[in-house]
Amino acid sequence: MRDLKQTGFNDRISAQKDAKAALLAKFKPKAAAPDPEFEKLAEKRAAEKEALRQQHELAKAEQRREKAEKEAARLAEKMAAQEAVDAEKRAARKERKQLSKEEQKAARDARYAARKARQR
Questions:
Q1: How far apart are CA 17 and CA 12, in angstroms?
Q2: CA–CA separation, 30 vs 58, rounded Å?
Q3: Which residues lie in Basic and acidic residues bias regions (predicted)?
Q4: What span, in angstroms and rounded, lies between the C-alpha atoms of 77 and 69?
């Protein structure tokens, strides 16, 4: 191969070093200029995030309220059912007492009638 450019060995080595340095320089991170809108965008994102958080908080509060209402309705229904059972028990007890009073009266009347029959 003929040397057309008439370069020496040292010239070729320095050219190779320069090319390699230029190639490596492409991959080095460059100093980034700060975006002038960065602060505004950060504030906007923070505001959106806060609005979304409040929206989620309201939704959770609504779910808790609905759950509490359902629980209160269930407890009220349970209390009403228990009250009905208690009223039925009271009515049955009253009826039993009334029957026993009538039976006692009938027994007393029978004793009175027997005593009267013995005296005649």
A1: 9
A2: 45
A3: 47-77, 97-112
A4: 12
Q: What is the pLDDT along the chain (120 residues), one digit of tens a residue?
A: 555 667 788 888 999 999 999 999 888 887 777 777 888 898 999 999 999 999 999 999 999 999 999 999 999 999 999 999 999 999 999 988 887 888 888 888 999 999 888 887
Start-to-end CA span in the chain (Å): 165
- Residue 56, helix vs strand vs coil: helix
Inter-CA distances, 81 with 75, 76, 88, 91, 93, Å = 10, 9, 11, 15, 18
pTM for the model stands at 0.43
- The residue with tokens 């200029």 is 33
φ, ψ at 4 (rounded to 5°) = -75, -35
Alpha-carbon Rg for the chain in angstroms: 51
φ, ψ dihedrals at 28, nearest 5°: -70, 140
